[in-house]
Amino acid sequence: MMRILILGAPGAGKGTQSKLISEILSIPHISTGDILRNEISSGTPLGNKVKSYVESGQLVPDEIIVEVLLSEMSKDKYKNGYILDGFPRNMNQLKVMEEKGIHVDKVIFIDTSEEEIIKRITGRRSCPNCGSVYNLYYNPPKQQNKCDKCGTELVQRKDDTEEVVRKRLETFKNETLPIVDYYTSKKILYRVNGNKNFDDIKNEIFSLLGV
Ligand code: AP5
Description:
Structural class: alpha/beta
Distance between the termini: 13 Å
Bound molecules: BIS(adenosine)-5'-pentaphosphate
CATH topology: Rossmann fold
CATH architecture: 3-Layer(aba) Sandwich
Largest sheet: 5 strands, parallel
Number of domains: 1
CATH superfamily: P-loop containing nucleotide triphosphate hydrolases
Number of strands: 7
Radius of gyration: 16 Å
Number of helices: 8
Strand content: 15-25%
Oligomer: single chain
Helix content: 40-55%
């Protein structure tokens, strides 16, 4: 059983690597950001409640996100392992997670420079239909602004402007970096250089996971 936590700043490459590991190792991927964006685009009551936080780059209040995570993790498909991406985001979320018996065996910290993050985030485009993610600089779609897989017009996330990204980076430093220190002291955190290309990062993570 593999219970993996992927940590990293906004745009560090967490979603990209989580999806790769998930596909290759058949371990389910939980992204709290993806869950919230799906709720927002479906216009559910939860989506309406969190919209302004997500789109302005602020953390959703702990009591809301904890409920979202616990409800997702109660599903049978996570019984034999998971890749957690986007949770916990602060020490309080970490505490609740541990109290509820949600544990991780290995933590991968994708450490990407701010300059690279700004380029990746402002270049990111995603497919609102199938969720595929592209980057105008690094992996552009074959046809301009159209998804390679389903042909849908690509969109830019509302929180992917440079101004909002700078705010998200500040929140990461203030709220999430203490989690990196916590898992470092527990000796289960592995730091990966996130400035490398997709494959080099993937290979490094696989070797750290021993697969
Ligand atoms: P969330 O969706 O978790 O956003 P994030 O942490 O800010 O991370 P991103 O999705 O922006 O980036 P990523 O690291 O996954 O990068 P990606 O792989 O896409 O959260 C969004 C919001 O939801 C939060 O702001 C908050 O409001 C709310 N929220 C979520 N969880 C919460 C929680 N626990 N508590 C409270 N609120 C919460 O890559 C980025 C781009 O770079 C892509 O275009 C990709 O193609 C490209 N790329 C990736 N790797 C490489 C590479 N090696 N080389 C070149 N390009 C690359």
